[in-house]
Amino acid sequence: MRPRVNPALFFLLPALTLIAVFYVVPLALSIYIGFTPLRNWNIAGGYLSQVTLENYERLFHMVMYDPDIGKVVATTVVFTVVTLAVNVLGGLALALTMYLMDLSGRELSLGFRTLWMLPRMTPIAVYSLMWYYFFLPGEEGILNSIAMRLGLIDEPVNWGNDPDLLPYGAWAILVVVNGLVGVSFGMVVFYAALRSIPREQIVAARVDGASTLHLVLYILIPQLRWHITYVTVWQLLSLLTTYAHIFLLVEWGAVDEFWGSNWALYVFNKAFALGESDQGLAAAAATILVLIGAGLGVLALRLMGFGRMMAEPRGEV
Amino acid sequence: MARLALRRARAEARAAERVMGDVETLRSARRAYLLAAVLGAASLPMVLLYLLLVLSSFADTIVTGPDILEARYSLDNWLMFFRGEVAPAAGRLYTTADILATIANTAIVALGVTAVVVFTSVLAGYAFSRMRFRWRRGLMTFIILLHAFPGVALIIAVYAMYVWSSMPLARSEGAMVAYAFAFTVLARASLELPMSIWLMKGFFDRIPWEVEWSALIDGASRLRAWWQIVLPQVKPGIAALAIFAFLAGWEDLIYVHVFLYIGTAGKVKTLATLIEELTANIETSYLPVVAAAGTLYLLPTILFFVLTQKLLLEAYSGGLKA
Q1: Which end of chain B is more exposed for a tag (fewer CB within 10 A), N or C?
Q2: Is the CB of residue A81 less than 8 Å away from at least one CB of chain B?
């Protein structure tokens, strides 16, 4: 006798409920809010019943003529591209170094792998605090203190705000802070992939007299092609939408407000500013981000053939 | 006969390994240690960053490196922090109860997220690993796409839902605070769901299906087979998932900032928003005390790290390979 309701529904119900309430409904609502003039969280104020294209017109106008938004757009592009390169290449370098270390037969890399995971797991407020101390403009800033002791600079530098250094000072800070968090993803994926390469191939290459450089260039890296694509696409998507690790640095004034904000952070601050806040505009700007993200996501699925990961279940009687 | 053949095969494999072991895959052990030294040098700035935070929490000033020996160290900052004297210059003091409540609030969010994530993704991961139903492929693709979804687009609408749904509670402060906690936990846990479901699916996939199958044949219900046969086998996976979820709830800044801090007009603080608030008032804040708060906040993360590093790394890469 077959039960009338598929038992899978029972197992899926809690997760699907949460996904419906906290992903599907908000997504639709967010797109809708983008077409309304909602501001200052005045939900009961009747704003939500006025449908308008005004937010998109304003956004277009701002991108074209508002220099501050121009800075945010430039920051988004540079920050995303440079951090992506740092994350993928850095992760690759770390994984290769660790793999080669372990090839000698000693498990030397475990401690290092854990260490490089740490920034990802560190409470964001603490992580931001550490970098805040590091780039503090006065003499008590770690970077200033060290550079002055070494005689590289005569007086303390305001790394994230000095007009002479902008925008590069602020950009460098963003890339360093986020790069260190993102690099562990590539490291873990690449290291796991390298470990799964049959040892015979390494031995054969060595017997044929391959140097370590040749081993890396002609044996190891070619086998990581799929993983490199995977990490690149995945990191691109998360970098496009990340803002948590920059949020406090901007709020605390460690970096310039606009040269230090990417699009996602700009959206967040527009919606959650303590004084005048504008959810309509923020939602419209977020919708644009969703469209770009969705496009890249679909492209990614195509590129990587996710079908492989979704083999049919074994568990059917 | 069969056993003999097996033994011979094993012996041959061992011999082959010995031969391969003679070929130096890395030219010398010295080179391995050289690589380790290079990597160590590259990691040094990061270690320094954490070390200086911890040292500063005991010092009378922010320790910046060169002055590591000049600073005076004591427990003063920690005592001040636990007494609530976190911004002495402004004369704006907290009470001991505030600080303890702040720590408790952080723990409530982290434990709540753990409970919700473990409960929902262990159930869903099993369904995706073992059951056939309509829309299975579509749902799985959808869920992995959700993970890449811009969180900032969600949080605006989720907060709008929060503002709207909490309107009837505005009269009672207690109900409002409880609702803010529930909302924070559920919203933050949902953010972890896509990755967790995939992680759990991976753990279930690795368990041989035969035992469970025979239980089902013998007439056990799906639920009973899941509870009594399968779950005990994925205990390490559940432990890894729980640790991940706890750390995710513990490290969070944005959701506690939005729902607990803004959402209750600053009444409910966690360690994250406390640090945010203290550092924002740069004129009044006394940074060494903030460093003590930061070190305390960092403690569980480090603890879990040292205790479970192998498990974490395995789960992280296992979940990715799925």
Answers
A1: N
A2: no
